[in-house]
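pasting for ref
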Amino acid sequence: MSPGDVVANIVFKIDEWAPPTKAVREVTFTGVAFPKSIGQATFTDCSFEDCLFLGTRFIEVEFHGCSFTNSNFWKSRFERVYLDPDSILMEARFKVEASNAGISVYQALLSNFAEERQDEFYIKADISFRRWKRYQIWPDLRRKRLTRTKAWTRWLGSVVYEILAGFGYRPFRFFLWTIALFLLVSWINYKIIGQGLIVNGSILPLPSFTDTMFYTFSVLTVLGFSSVLPIDGFSKILTVFEALAAIGWLGIFTSVLVKRFLR
């Protein structure tokens, strides 16, 4: 195969990709079925469209600048492989008709990236794996493997986790959400319990938003009240619940930081 070649609609024999295999550059594969084993090969700027890698075992294979469009890696295995997970593209129909194919490829890639310590690729593969696990929820519901309640709970949990923290890999995003949430709670406190606070030992008709925000952040970060204190029963009860919720939220924040930087 030479640069610029188009290989279409063929089935490779078992021994055609046995090691040692020379490098392949700028070749387009369309509707090709690859054998069960590919070893010691390097693909550069190649394109794979509607290809089948069913049960293929990749050993010491590198893909540089390649793209995979609607290719099926069902039950493929990867050992000492270099492959950018972002190069794997699947149409929306796969999410409905064959979400297990996405789960299969990214789960296999995760093991390879973990062993090879390819951390950035590992993160990309894990995010994609979790998304495809979410797509699989609805086929499982249709097959009655999940109850409706469990399906919606898992789906909602996955969506929220991705939006808030990028499945634990976006701590800065979670930090911004934390600031936004704390400011929202500050505004709620200002509207609901503003008159139930004492500032520097003085009962004010209505403390300023700055005082209420200082009080709220002190409670939610578990630092204590300092110069702003609740004085009536409702304010004290609400403060207790806010502090308890903040402990869980900050625990999640800590776990995100640990997952991203100390994996």
